[in-house]
Amino acid sequence: MFLKFMNDINFFKKNGYLLKKNLIDQETINKINKIVNEVVSKEKNKKKVVNKTQSYNNYHFVYNSDSKKNKEILRLNNPQNRHKIFYDLSRNKKIISIAKKLLGGSVRFHLGKLNFKLPNKKKGSEIGWHQDWAFYPHSNDDLITVGIYLDDCYEKNGPLKIIKKSHTKKIYNHHNNENFFVGKIDTKKNKIGIKNSISIT
Ligand SMILES: O=C(O)CCC(=O)C(=O)O
Which residue, judged by its Cα, is nearest atom 2 of ligand 1? Predict the structure, then answer.
Protein backbone atom coordinates (compact mmCIF):
# COMPACT_ATOMS: atom_id res chain seq x y z
CA MET A 1 0.00 0.00 0.00
CA PHE A 2 2.74 2.42 1.03
CA LEU A 3 4.74 1.55 -2.10
CA LYS A 4 1.68 2.12 -4.28
CA PHE A 5 1.25 5.60 -2.83
CA MET A 6 4.96 6.33 -3.22
CA ASN A 7 4.71 5.37 -6.91
CA ASP A 8 1.68 7.64 -7.30
CA ILE A 9 3.41 10.53 -5.55
CA ASN A 10 6.58 10.12 -7.61
CA PHE A 11 4.61 9.91 -10.86
CA PHE A 12 2.59 13.01 -9.93
CA LYS A 13 5.65 15.03 -8.96
CA LYS A 14 7.49 14.05 -12.13
CA ASN A 15 4.68 14.42 -14.67
CA GLY A 16 2.28 16.87 -13.03
CA TYR A 17 -0.79 14.63 -13.20
CA LEU A 18 -2.08 11.26 -12.05
CA LEU A 19 -4.79 9.08 -13.53
CA LYS A 20 -6.80 6.76 -11.26
CA LYS A 21 -9.45 4.46 -12.62
CA ASN A 22 -12.69 3.09 -11.12
CA LEU A 23 -12.68 5.18 -7.94
CA ILE A 24 -16.41 5.84 -8.25
CA ASP A 25 -18.72 2.89 -8.83
CA GLN A 26 -20.89 2.76 -11.93
CA GLU A 27 -24.12 2.91 -9.92
CA THR A 28 -23.11 6.26 -8.44
CA ILE A 29 -22.03 7.56 -11.87
CA ASN A 30 -25.44 6.55 -13.27
CA LYS A 31 -27.23 8.33 -10.42
CA ILE A 32 -25.13 11.46 -10.98
CA ASN A 33 -25.85 11.44 -14.72
CA LYS A 34 -29.58 11.10 -14.04
CA ILE A 35 -29.46 14.16 -11.80
CA VAL A 36 -27.33 16.07 -14.33
CA ASN A 37 -29.95 15.36 -17.00
CA GLU A 38 -32.73 16.58 -14.71
CA VAL A 39 -30.86 19.78 -13.79
CA VAL A 40 -30.08 20.49 -17.46
CA SER A 41 -33.65 19.87 -18.70
CA LYS A 42 -35.05 22.06 -15.93
CA GLU A 43 -32.68 24.85 -16.94
CA LYS A 44 -33.36 24.42 -20.66
CA ASN A 45 -37.14 24.44 -20.14
CA LYS A 46 -37.12 27.68 -18.17
CA LYS A 47 -39.39 30.26 -19.77
CA LYS A 48 -37.13 33.16 -18.93
CA VAL A 49 -34.15 33.07 -21.28
CA VAL A 50 -30.87 34.42 -20.00
CA ASN A 51 -29.35 36.72 -22.59
CA LYS A 52 -25.77 36.47 -21.55
CA THR A 53 -23.18 33.70 -21.49
CA GLN A 54 -23.15 34.26 -17.76
CA SER A 55 -25.38 36.52 -15.69
CA TYR A 56 -25.72 37.55 -12.08
CA ASN A 57 -29.30 36.36 -11.76
CA ASN A 58 -28.34 32.92 -13.02
CA TYR A 59 -24.67 32.75 -12.21
CA HIS A 60 -24.54 28.98 -11.78
CA PHE A 61 -24.88 28.31 -15.49
CA VAL A 62 -22.47 29.35 -18.20
CA TYR A 63 -23.69 29.29 -21.81
CA ASN A 64 -21.90 29.10 -25.13
CA SER A 65 -23.60 32.15 -26.59
CA ASP A 66 -25.24 35.48 -25.78
CA SER A 67 -27.87 34.94 -28.45
CA LYS A 68 -31.22 33.28 -27.68
CA LYS A 69 -30.76 30.87 -30.57
CA ASN A 70 -28.92 27.55 -30.21
CA LYS A 71 -28.11 28.26 -26.61
CA GLU A 72 -26.19 25.42 -24.97
CA ILE A 73 -24.97 24.95 -21.43
CA LEU A 74 -21.19 24.80 -21.13
CA ARG A 75 -20.84 24.70 -17.39
CA LEU A 76 -22.66 24.46 -14.09
CA ASN A 77 -20.70 26.19 -11.37
CA ASN A 78 -20.54 24.76 -7.87
CA PRO A 79 -22.98 21.85 -8.31
CA GLN A 80 -22.09 20.75 -4.76
CA ASN A 81 -24.20 23.67 -3.46
CA ARG A 82 -27.17 22.51 -5.48
CA HIS A 83 -27.45 18.78 -4.93
CA LYS A 84 -26.23 16.43 -2.20
CA ILE A 85 -24.87 13.90 -4.69
CA PHE A 86 -22.26 16.46 -5.82
CA TYR A 87 -21.56 17.48 -2.24
CA ASP A 88 -20.91 13.82 -1.40
CA LEU A 89 -18.61 13.56 -4.40
CA SER A 90 -16.66 16.58 -3.17
CA ARG A 91 -16.18 14.72 0.13
CA ASN A 92 -15.32 11.34 -1.43
CA LYS A 93 -12.94 9.66 1.02
CA LYS A 94 -10.91 7.83 -1.65
CA ILE A 95 -10.30 11.01 -3.63
CA ILE A 96 -9.51 13.08 -0.54
CA SER A 97 -7.03 10.50 0.67
CA ILE A 98 -5.19 10.57 -2.69
CA ALA A 99 -5.20 14.39 -2.78
CA LYS A 100 -3.80 14.48 0.77
CA LYS A 101 -1.01 12.08 -0.12
CA LEU A 102 -0.10 14.04 -3.26
CA LEU A 103 -0.05 17.39 -1.50
CA GLY A 104 1.47 15.99 1.67
CA GLY A 105 -0.94 17.42 4.24
CA SER A 106 -4.56 18.23 4.92
CA VAL A 107 -6.78 19.57 2.14
CA ARG A 108 -9.58 22.10 1.80
CA PHE A 109 -12.22 22.02 -0.91
CA HIS A 110 -12.23 25.25 -2.90
CA LEU A 111 -14.76 25.09 -5.73
CA GLY A 112 -16.58 22.70 -8.01
CA LYS A 113 -17.81 22.80 -11.58
CA LEU A 114 -19.47 20.55 -14.07
CA ASN A 115 -18.14 20.97 -17.62
CA PHE A 116 -20.25 19.96 -20.61
CA LYS A 117 -18.42 19.28 -23.83
CA LEU A 118 -20.59 19.97 -26.83
CA PRO A 119 -20.06 17.74 -29.86
CA ASN A 120 -18.75 20.55 -32.03
CA LYS A 121 -15.97 22.97 -31.22
CA LYS A 122 -17.67 25.68 -33.28
CA LYS A 123 -20.39 25.77 -30.65
CA GLY A 124 -17.79 27.06 -28.25
CA SER A 125 -17.12 24.16 -25.96
CA GLU A 126 -13.44 23.88 -26.69
CA ILE A 127 -11.39 24.50 -23.57
CA GLY A 128 -8.19 26.31 -24.56
CA TRP A 129 -4.74 25.36 -23.36
CA HIS A 130 -4.27 26.73 -19.88
CA GLN A 131 -2.57 26.27 -16.55
CA ASP A 132 -5.09 25.91 -13.74
CA TRP A 133 -3.02 28.01 -11.38
CA ALA A 134 -3.62 31.07 -13.58
CA PHE A 135 -7.30 30.79 -12.65
CA TYR A 136 -6.94 30.45 -8.91
CA PRO A 137 -4.31 32.15 -8.16
CA HIS A 138 -3.22 31.55 -4.57
CA SER A 139 -0.26 32.59 -2.49
CA ASN A 140 1.12 29.06 -2.74
CA ASP A 141 0.81 26.40 -5.41
CA ASP A 142 -0.22 23.45 -3.25
CA LEU A 143 -3.38 23.11 -5.28
CA ILE A 144 -4.83 20.19 -7.10
CA THR A 145 -7.68 19.92 -9.62
CA VAL A 146 -9.65 16.68 -9.45
CA GLY A 147 -11.47 15.82 -12.67
CA ILE A 148 -14.06 13.04 -12.78
CA TYR A 149 -15.33 11.77 -16.11
CA LEU A 150 -19.07 11.08 -16.03
CA ASP A 151 -18.96 9.47 -19.48
CA ASP A 152 -16.37 7.17 -20.99
CA CYS A 153 -13.97 9.43 -22.80
CA TYR A 154 -12.30 8.76 -26.13
CA GLU A 155 -10.37 10.93 -28.56
CA LYS A 156 -13.61 11.76 -30.41
CA ASN A 157 -15.51 13.17 -27.41
CA GLY A 158 -12.92 15.65 -26.25
CA PRO A 159 -10.68 14.18 -23.58
CA LEU A 160 -8.69 16.35 -21.23
CA LYS A 161 -5.21 16.82 -22.72
CA ILE A 162 -2.07 17.24 -20.73
CA ILE A 163 1.50 18.23 -21.49
CA LYS A 164 3.64 16.12 -19.23
CA LYS A 165 6.05 18.01 -16.95
CA SER A 166 4.58 21.39 -17.97
CA HIS A 167 4.04 22.04 -14.24
CA THR A 168 7.80 22.58 -14.02
CA LYS A 169 7.62 25.46 -16.52
CA LYS A 170 6.79 29.11 -15.87
CA ILE A 171 3.23 30.43 -15.53
CA TYR A 172 2.29 31.71 -18.99
CA ASN A 173 0.22 34.76 -19.84
CA HIS A 174 -3.52 33.96 -20.05
CA HIS A 175 -4.53 37.39 -21.42
CA ASN A 176 -5.30 38.43 -24.99
CA ASN A 177 -3.71 41.26 -26.98
CA GLU A 178 -6.08 43.78 -25.35
CA ASN A 179 -4.93 42.48 -21.98
CA PHE A 180 -8.24 40.86 -21.03
CA PHE A 181 -8.01 37.60 -19.09
CA VAL A 182 -9.17 34.92 -21.54
CA GLY A 183 -8.02 31.86 -19.62
CA LYS A 184 -5.93 30.44 -22.42
CA ILE A 185 -2.34 30.50 -23.55
CA ASP A 186 -1.18 31.50 -27.02
CA THR A 187 0.67 28.24 -27.66
CA LYS A 188 2.12 29.37 -31.01
CA LYS A 189 3.53 32.60 -29.65
CA ASN A 190 4.96 30.76 -26.66
CA LYS A 191 6.27 27.91 -28.84
CA ILE A 192 4.56 25.26 -26.72
CA GLY A 193 4.68 21.85 -28.34
CA ILE A 194 1.09 20.66 -28.03
CA LYS A 195 1.84 17.79 -30.43
CA ASN A 196 3.52 16.06 -27.50
CA SER A 197 0.41 16.28 -25.35
CA ILE A 198 -1.33 13.14 -24.17
CA SER A 199 -5.08 12.54 -24.04
CA ILE A 200 -6.62 11.25 -20.84
CA THR A 201 -8.94 8.58 -22.20
O1 LIG B 1 -11.65 18.88 -19.61
C2 LIG B 1 -10.87 19.67 -20.12
O3 LIG B 1 -10.57 19.61 -21.31
C4 LIG B 1 -10.23 20.73 -19.29
C5 LIG B 1 -10.92 20.99 -18.01
C6 LIG B 1 -10.19 22.01 -17.25
O7 LIG B 1 -9.00 22.13 -17.31
C8 LIG B 1 -10.90 22.90 -16.36
O9 LIG B 1 -12.12 22.90 -16.34
O10 LIG B 1 -10.18 23.65 -15.66
Answer: 160
The model's pTM is: 0.88
- Which pLDDT score is estimated for 104? 94
Segment holding 160, helix H or strand E:
strand 160-162
User: Whole-angstrom Cα distance, residue 85 to residue 89?
Assistant: 6
Ligand 1, atom 10, residue with closest C-alpha:
132
Is residue 7 pLDDT above 90, yes or no?
yes
Q: Give the separation between CA 62 and CA 173, rounded to whole angstroms.
A: 23
Q: How far apart are CA 175 and CA 45, in angstroms?
A: 35
Residue 18 burial by Cβ neighbours in a 10 Å radius (0-12, 13-18, 19+): middle
Residue 160's DSSP bridge partners are: 200
CB 77 less than 6 A from any atom of ligand 1: no
Q: Report all structural domains of the chain as residue ranges with CATH numbers, in order of start.
A: 2-200 (2.60.120.620)
pLDDT at 166: 94
Kindly state the average pLDDT of the residues 15-21.
96
